[in-house]
Queue: 3 jobs
Job 1
Amino acid sequence: MAESEPTFTRIEWPKSLPGGRLDQALREHLPSVSRGTVRRLIQEGHLRVNGAPVKPTYSPRAGDQVEISWPAPRPAVAQPQAIPLEILFEDEHLIVLNKSAGIAVHPSAGHDEHTLVNALLHYCEGKLSGIGGVARPGIVHRLDLETSGCLIVAKDDLTHIHLARQFAERTVRKYYLALVCGDVVKDAGEIRAAIARHVSHRKRMAVAIGEGREARTGYEVVERFRSATLVRVQLFTGRTHQIRVHFQHLGYPLVGDEVYGKRQHQRFTEATGIEVNRQMLHALEISFTHPATQRSMKFSAPWPADLGNVLARLRENRNRLS
């Protein structure tokens, strides 16, 4: 069998992208590619600047010509598993699906089976983009374990590259529904607060004044309840745990979030009598440009049953007390 032609990505380094180490700075342009993958590409000679090999510590300058030759995908470590998928759209280039809450996107410590990647390997018979590495075939962006909703999957490398660029350039529109603890004061607003890893709890993120990565979240109130507020959220950036951290910062952590709002969630349960076993966050809508057809695409994921049931209970409580 003849080898497939290599896939290339060529970038003229813009002034708008940061300097610093190349392996770190390139994450701003290709956010779905891990820093470790970038470092491996450099070490194996697949990444060149102005035609010459460089070290991971090279500091890119405006006008530099960066070329990446993507190696053929390595065999996926994850094993195919017949797990049901809710497909919202599919063609030969990509899939848009409605991820269920409680399923991890890709294998990790403690989640090496029954992940979305396991399901996709079975469904697509292994025909997925390899840019995300052996543990993340096809994965362009992620949702938290407990978050449900819209997720895009790339079937080939070119599609992955173009989608990743749209995420990096912030042209992908992402809207979420979040049920937060308390009565949000403003009907609409925008949260601008940089996010960094928590100084003592390394698996958590936190607002970092004067440092961290830029993070911007817009919101508008959809419905108010006793002890909770339903908000529609727009993500302008895509930092880890961004919605959860930003609403904790405002004083309204997500209902069901045991990491960023355990005490407030306990008060919600005591006040309403409603037990919730996951964070109430749903990726409602996503819009992007199809990499092959250049058509504008927009998809919405139906609300999950558990969120719908909680909202129905809250409405009953509100009506009974009014």
Job 2
Amino acid sequence: MEVLDALAKARLLPLLTVRGGEDLRALAQVLREEGVGLLEITLRTPQGLEALRVLGDSGLLLGAGTVRSLEEAKAAMAAGARFLVSPGLKEAVACLAQEEGVPYFPGVLTPTEVERALELGLSVLKFFPAEPFQGAQVLRAYAEVFPEVRFLPTGGIKEEQLPLYAPLPNLLAVGGSWLLAGDAASIRGRIRRAKALLRLPAQG
């Protein structure tokens, strides 16, 4: 699957909440040049859907984050979202995504939530919020009991925590907004450092 392959290659999922004033095309260019082919745009602000439309021809695989209702999921897909991410598991969104063939990554935290996601046919899950709940330690334990699940830990993760996540066998990619703070040069440097910490070669 294209989205999963891109996540496995990048091992990073940058998360953007659009508040106005961002140079979206410049950001997309930096991500492409640094070998990060995906961007999660949250629906926390009204500008999120418009950003999905604006970047539709950017060459990035765009996802919608903070999808909390069926209506938001439909609007996001209509705006060009190629994958959907929720802070928690929304069964109606899971059903719609499966019908449309769109990857859906719901947020989970507890073993019960992981089991419910598996019952719905979902085996790639967002682990959220990661750092407040010692994400690396929990995911290491989950690798033993849920070997079929791969995780996208998100929430409070910063550069200094990446070495804790890098060796996890069930890690697909690390998500976060910290990657996109600052100007283009700052973002570029942060991506390169993150890739090094996750033991990936830099581009170029």
Job 3
Amino acid sequence: MSPMPPPRASTEGRDRRVEQEIAQILRALHAEGPQSEPELATLVGAPFWEPGRFAHALTVAASDGRVLRDEWGRLSIP
């Protein structure tokens, strides 16, 4: 049996929680369609997250190309 390949460079060093938070964001966008940032925060329960976690997860997801922001500022999945 060959060893598993190393993780993708873009996810190395990330904590699991940010990946779980990104997954919540992606599920909400998939289920509800494009959302404003405040609407999305409400959908995923971000007011109950630690301060800064939602903004960080959204930034990471956007930098990875997993979340897009349109000309009106609405967030969506590609």
